[in-house]
Amino acid sequence: KQDDGPKVNDPRLLPDMFLQRTAKVVYILEKKHSRAATGFIKLLADKNSELFRRCAMFSPVDHRVPRAYVSLADCPPDFVTRPEDYSNMLFICRIVDWKEDSNFATGQLAKSLGQAGEIEPETEGILTEYGVDFSDFSPEALECLPQSLPWVISPGEMAKRRDLR
Asked: What are the residue boundaries of the CSD2 domain, all occurrences included (predicted)?
């Protein structure tokens, strides 16, 4: 008896719900991420390795960003002798490279933000990660604002607006 039904080995004949789509990245057209991350630095675990004498480990707060090796030259001068002083200090690290054969990216410390858990350093870290310009407004922009304070919206203008409070 000859079976003329669909061949199970031919994936084109299977319904889409049975297929697992796969792909391969061949080229990155545009890098969207700022490649900056907020996190902590710590000494490497293997004290006898050559890498221990040259690098520290940067661990980002955001788990989606890879850990990175940063040069000890970028770290604070007393970091190697007193790493516990920096265990709760937030830093900004920029990822500069990530070799194919390495588990960790290579980063460069850009800035020390301050103690973790405080509003100012945490806010600055988030804004820097997402590329938000948080510098002060220019004098030209500030001149456009009403100078007589306290300023209130006139009743006529308020009638034209939709109150979303």
From this structure: 56-131
CA distance 125 to 115: 11
Tokens of residue 82, six digits: 């007193």
Q: Name the residue with tokens 């545009």.
A: 30
More confident residue, 111 or 18: 111
C-beta of residue 146 within 8 angstroms of C-beta of residue 49: no
* CA–CA distance, 129 with 63 (Å, rounded to integer): 13
What average pLDDT does this structure show over 1-12? 63
Write a three-state SS string for 51-80: HHHHEEEEEECCCCCCCEEEECCCCCCCCC
